[in-house]
């Protein structure tokens, strides 16, 4: 008689780390793709004491929570220190990063290989956001907001409101 051996449920946890200052439609596009691929997707905001951000970490977290609330498997968290340590702590085996154009590749390659050296069990997975967002970055968004330019289609409406308030 055939014996049915219970198979272990495989749960994949991925971390999508970044500054998210602020979250853009490009980030959102990647989060949407990532949540389809992984059982759990942790969007982790780096608490970087060196950079001078536009939004505080709690503000960035609040905006991310606001625009990802439709996806149950997406969690927003904050981390500091090495990403590999945080990944170990959260039991994640995958780092998710977006590559928009060739210009992103060198920096991403360096980071992925360094993270692999620090923690060989950790894999970096790259996904391409929709081509509409290939020219989009949080830095460009901050600059447009600073000079009062149009932000429609670049960030979610709630983020646009926050940006306008910040520069007014
Ligand atoms: O959105 P960003 O600013 O390109 O994200 C960069 C981030 C947060 C992924 C990267 O700076 C990072 O992981 N920092 C944590 C410190 C670390 O682990 N450094 C070694 C990796 S090379």
Structure description:
This protein is 42% helix and 17% strand. The chain contains 6 helices and 5 strands, in the order E-H-E-H-E-H-E-H-E-H-H. The chain has a 5-stranded parallel β-sheet, with helices on both faces. The N and C termini lie far apart (74 Å). Bound molecules: 4'-phosphopantetheine. 4'-phosphopantetheine (PNS) is lined by residues 17-19, 46, 82-83, 111, 114-115.
Topology record:
Blueprint: E1 13-18, H1 25-37, E2 40-46, H2 57-68, E3 74-79, H3 83-90, E4 94-98, H4 102-118, E5 123-127, H5 138-146, H6 157-167
Parallel strand pairs: 1-2, 1-4, 2-3, 4-5
Helix segment tally: 6
Major sheet strand order:
3-2-1-4-5
Helix content: 40-55%
- Catalogue the ligands: 4'-phosphopantetheine
Q: Uncertain segments of ≥5 residues (pLDDT<50)?
A: none
Distance between the termini: 74 Å
Using the CA coordinates, give the radius of gyration: 17 Å
Note the run of SSEs as H and E.
EHEHEHEHEHH
Mean pLDDT: 94
Number of strands: 5
Category from helices, strands and their pairing = alpha/beta
Summarize the structure.
The protein is 42% helix and 17% strand. The protein is of the alpha/beta class. It starts with 12 loop residues before the first strand and ends with a helix.
Which terms summarize this structure?
168 residues, 5-stranded parallel beta sheet, 6 helices, globular, binds 4'-phosphopantetheine
């Amino acid at each position: 008689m055939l014996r049915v051996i219970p198979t272990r449920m495989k749960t994949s946890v991925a971390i999508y780390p970044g500054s998210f200052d602020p979250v853009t439609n490009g980030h959102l596009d990647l989060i949407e793709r990532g949540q389809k691929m992984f059982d759990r997707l942790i969007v982790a905001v780096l608490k970087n004491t060196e950079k001078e951000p536009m939004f505080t970490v709690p503000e960035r977290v609040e905006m991310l929570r606001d625009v990802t609330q439709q996806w149950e498997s997406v969690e927003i968290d904050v981390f500091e220190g090495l990403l590999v340590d945080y990944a170990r702590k959260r039991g994640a085996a995958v780092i998710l990063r977006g590559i928009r154009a060739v210009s992103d590749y060198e920096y991403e390659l360096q980071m992925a290989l360094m993270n692999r050296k620090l923690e060989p069990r950790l894999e970096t997975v790259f996904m391409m956001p929709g081509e509409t967002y290939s020219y989009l970055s949080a830095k460009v968004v901050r600059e447009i907001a600073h000079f009062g330019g149009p932000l429609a289609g670049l960030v979610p409406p709630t983020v646009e409101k926050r940006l306008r308030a910040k520069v007014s």
